[in-house]
Amino acid sequence: MGAHEHAADTDETDVHVLDHHLGDYKKIITVLTVMTAFEFGISYLMAEKHMGLVLGIVVLVALAFVKAALVAKFFMHLRYDPKPLTMFIVIPLVLASPILIICCFDAIKGPSI
Fold first, then answer.
1. How many separate domains does the chain show?
2. Mean pLDDT lowest for which of 21-25, 53-57, 61-65?
């Protein structure tokens, strides 16, 4: 029995498959890190009054949405799931985004009553 035949009998993942995905994970982690740095920069601009509150919140929510989509797609492996299951998860996220923006403004301004 050769090494290839013996490896097929076990439940262990092939190292070459892990190496293939490792490059993708490194790229995604780099993108997430750069986006987080942008979020810190935008927060700084908002604190120093160089960027308006409304624009800052909309940009921060958009960046958070993109980061959440990347994490769900690659680290939660939605990329490999069937399209209907992916839509079942993505559509509520898209519909919840305007509510999230409205709640951010409400939390900042406080109750209007």
1. 1
2. 21-25
